[in-house]
Amino acid sequence: MLKTYGLIFPDGTKYLSSVVLDDEGNPRIDTIRPYPVPEDWVDPTLVELIKADPPGPETEWESYLEWFPDKVEVHWKQIS
């Protein structure tokens, strides 16, 4: 099973990535490491992705991400 997480690397780089979950539903960080693992590799911090649906169908919406130290949230803004 896969789940999308925010990945925050030590240099401040941020990505969304699908991460494999183990049998108990915990993320397997080893599944996002490059192979072979570079000597200077540092695992990113995994943060929860908080999804939200667009506010309504009456207009067009564009999603954007807001990053926090412990989560990443999907927000919506109206396209004018």
State the gist of this model.
This protein has strands at residues 2-8, 14-20, 45-50, 61-67, 71-78. The protein is mainly beta and 80 residues long.
Low-confidence stretches: none
User: What is the total tally of β strands?
Assistant: 5
Give the H and E element order. Answer: EEEEE
Shape: elongated
Structural class: mainly beta
Average pLDDT for all residues: 91
Q: Give the C-alpha Rg.
A: 15 Å
* Separate helix tally: 0
**What percentage of residues falls in helices of 4 or more residues?**
under 10%
> Strand percentage, roughly?
35-45%
The main β sheet shows up as: 5 strands, mixed
**How do the strands line up in the largest sheet?**
2-1-3-5-4
How far the N terminus sits from the C terminus, by CA atoms, comes to 38 Å
Plain-language structure description:
With 80 residues, the chain is mostly beta strands. The radius of gyration is 15 Å and the shape is elongated. The chain starts with a strand and ends with a strand. It contains no helices and five strands. Strands 2-1-3-5-4 form a five-stranded mixed β-sheet, with no helix packed on it. It has strands at residues 2-8, 14-20, 45-50, 61-67, 71-78. A hairpin with a 5-residue loop joins β1 and β2.
